Amino acid sequence: MDCFTVVRDLISIDTSVPPGRNYEKTIDYLEPLFHHVGFETQKIRIPAKCADGYKGRVNLIAHRRNAGKPRLIFYAHIDVVPAQGWEAFKPREDGGKIYGRGAADMKGGIAALLLGLEAADQGKLKYDTSVIVTTDEEVGQASQIRFLGQFLQPLSGAYFFDLDSSFGCVTIASLGAIHLDIKVTGRSVHSALSHLGENAVEQANLLINALSELKREVIQRKSQVDAEPATGLTKMESRLNINMIKGGLKVNIVPDECSIAIDRRLIPEETLEEAERELIQTLSSVAGVRWEIEKLTRIPTVPPLDDPIVDKLAKVIQDVTGDSGIFGEMGSGDFGPVATLEWDARHFGSGVIRPECNIHGKDEFVYKKDIEDLARIIPRFISTE
Question: In 3D, which of 311, 295, 307, 298 has the Cα closest to residue 337?
Fold first, then answer.
């Protein structure tokens, strides 16, 4: 199997979400590849009621069952964030890198998995092995993950190998998240008569100022869990960012609405309840501003995993790459919390993402050597000596 052809082919299929394009086309491309590496497959259509009302969500499950062995399930997703300002879905290679949307997050990881499974001796797998290839990770997939659980039994005590992870290390924890969309309400008038109106943009700025004060406190909070050194951090850290603001119709109209989007990331030592209460108290402390919550999303943290399998994977990574480590992931997602908190499973990961790969940004890329190395790590990890 030419894994680089697989990466290029996957990048060429625009799976942007929103809205969620070409999911079935991508699954149809991948299904015969999993057959090729000796796995039985099942294409799963997610009911709209289990996908937040979205239609056309098609996932893939692949099995190489090995009764009596420990349960291991690889996790991957095919969706990518939208791209603009560059030819994101026309893959190109330069200097040992493959460029394109989803190259590192995480179509390169899927290609590495396929190449690794192809290299593994199917008669010597030490795990009861499955793979799930999912959709909508970038916008929220918890309900879809829960639906897939029925096809993955047994789940309690299972190991989940998350390929949506950093390269060259084992990730054992991840940040939680609160996404809060706030609408500020004012009163619209002609700008020359602004004394008769209420400027929603200016009032939203008062909220932003209060949140900025809170941010100075939040970003000082550090976890006991080490962070991957390439991030420039020593420990996992909390985050608070105002990442979107939208308001106003025209330069000579006092705006009557303004929306802001807040992204709060939590270290494992924090709770969703405490972080949400802190945000609401901060917003409420600003007198004279009318605001309401339009949308609230909560993603719990994934607590650090303490299990011998972590050391086993770390040693394989060390043997293949010459370096390794065990760290917390400075990212969030729905999958880990469902697996650990609802299924009583054990979650860890390794992938092809590096900080410099610029995932979610312009000119995202993956190192070809990282794909090759992960493809060498996987068969050594899942096969007996």
Answer: 298
* Domains defined for the chain, CATH in brackets: 3-174+301-382 (3.40.630.10), 176-299 (3.30.70.360)
For tokens 């065990």, what's the residue? 326
Check: CB of residue 289 under 8 Å from CB of residue 203: yes
H or E element in which residue 176 lies: strand 176-185
The CA dihedral of 134, 135, 139, 144, to the nearest 10 degrees, is -70
Q: Model confidence at 230, in pLDDT bands (50, 70, 90)?
A: confident
What backbone torsions phi and psi does residue 33 show, to the nearest 5 degrees? -70, -40
**CA–CA separation, 371 and 361 (whole Å):** 20
pLDDT class of 1 with cuts at 50, 70, 90 = confident
- Output DSSP code: residue 363: T
Q: Tell me the β-bridge partners of 42.
A: 61
Helices and strands, counts by H and E, the chain: 9, 17
Give the Cβ contact number of residue 86 at 10 Å: 14
What pLDDT, on the 0 to 100 scale, is given for residue 383? 92
Q: Which helix (H) or strand (E) holds 160?
A: strand 159-162
Say yes or no to pLDDT of 62 above 80: yes
Q: Following CA atoms 317, 322, 325, 330 in sequence, which dihedral angle do they give, to the nearest 10 degrees?
A: -80
- Judge whether 135 and 60 are in contact, CB under 8 Å: no
Q: Which two tokens stand for residue 240?
A: 């608070």
| Residues 111 and 6: beta-carbon distance below 8 Å | yes
Mean pLDDT of the chain: 96
- Residue 165 DSSP one-character state: S
Distance CA 10, CA 322 (A): 29
> 3-state class of 114 per DSSP?
helix
pTM for the model stands at: 0.91
Q: Nearest CA to 76 among 161, 14, 140, 156?
A: 161
Q: Using the Cα atoms of residue 348, residue 104, residue 331 and residue 319 in order, give the sign of their dihedral.
A: positive
Phi, psi for 365 (deg, rounded to 5): -145, 170
